[in-house]
Fold this sequence. Notes:
Elements: H1 9-27, H2 61-67, E1 87-95, E2 99-106, H3 112-124, E3 132-138, E4 150-154, E5 158-162, E6 183-190, E7 195-202, E8 205-211, E9 217-225, E10 231-235, E11 244-247, E12 253-256, E13 261-267
Parallel strand pairs: 2-3
Antiparallel strand pairs: 1-2, 3-4, 4-5, 6-7, 6-13, 7-8, 8-9, 9-10, 10-11, 11-12, 12-13
Amino acid sequence: MYPPLLVSKRTIMILAVCLISIVASSCDGDPGPAPRRALRFERVSSATGVPLTPAVTPDISATISAAFPVNTQPGGQAPVVPAEATYSVIQTNIVTGIRKSIDVRLDEEVSEASLRAIALELKSGDSRHYERTFIVYYLPGMPVGGGGWATTHFDPGLEVRILGLAGQEERADPSGPLISTREDIGTWLDDVTGSQIVMYSEGGKSYVEHYFKDGSFLKDELVDKPSPLGQRLESKGGSELGRHWVVDSFGNLQIRDNVGLISTAKRIK
């Protein structure tokens, strides 16, 4: 047998301390990452219990309509020409940005309302801008340029007039002889528009006739108004811009509006 091993108290204490240190270090070790928990989605309810209100999307249709208006007439109504008011365009003459003249052949006489509808339809068919649009209507058999049966002029507002049939009271050539019952006021040449302007009195009324280079012809009734500049004449139906004529002391024809002098046409007769 082995002899008993004698161990001092000091050695026992040292061994005990070492054992305690080993046990403590094993307890403090990193146990490794904890297992990952599966994600859970929970429904969250409003604290007040009131259901959520969806966001309101603003209606921008009105804004778009204002920015890109459709080609309709005032009041939002597109022109509607009655089925019986049939017509065809004879010719169109354009001075870009200034004037558009249209000669129209009617199949028969129509009412003022039908003329207005035709005028609006013709004007809305061209998106280009003109200061004025002149439309002259001829009945079957009437020569173009010899005076129309009716007119619808945008000057710039729409003016509808039925002049009636052209007979001996009308003349197609401004240089032709005057009817004996007419009193000639004067004949002028407007260099701006290239038109010839003829004014005369007959039966207690005054008239103006415009003869354009493209062959179109316009006629209107005039009224006299006092003016310190000379004899003032203007359209009986008036004009939104106050357009009128003044025969000055030299016999020339001043073309004016509310702003002032537009141009002066020289007297040729």
